[in-house]
């Protein structure tokens, strides 16, 4: 009788251990599934962030190229404006030179007229 009780106890204990092991395996599998689901969920976010970063990098590169082209174009415009300004200064210099020559010619013309009139008066005074 005692041996039967011990055997029953051992059998019940073995069954409990078996059930406990089965439940432990189920718990481990459920934890693994949960972990995998969480990792998959996070990976979706990480993948999206990675794609966004790639897009940002591409757009930043394009912006840098555009900025470089704009800087080159701006330098070209500045060079053209400097040339235009220089041409305007030259026109102003030519205008000043022309006015100076015109003033000199008027002075010479006035002097010649004065000389001619003086010569006319002198020759008129000597012939009379």
Structural class: mainly alpha
| Whole-angstrom Rg | 54 Å
Helix content: over 70%
* Basic shape: rod-shaped
Strand content: under 5%
Biggest beta sheet summary: none
Span of the ends, CA to CA: 186 Å
Low-confidence stretches: none
Number of helices: 1
Commentary on this structure:
It is rod-shaped and about 185 Å long. It starts with a helix and ends with a helix. With 128 residues, the chain is mainly alpha-helical. The chain contains one helix and no strands.
Task: Describe the secondary-structure layout.
Blueprint: H1 2-127
Short key terms for the protein model shown above:
128 residues; single chain; mainly alpha; rod-shaped
Offer a concise description of the structure.
The protein is mainly alpha-helical and 128 residues long.
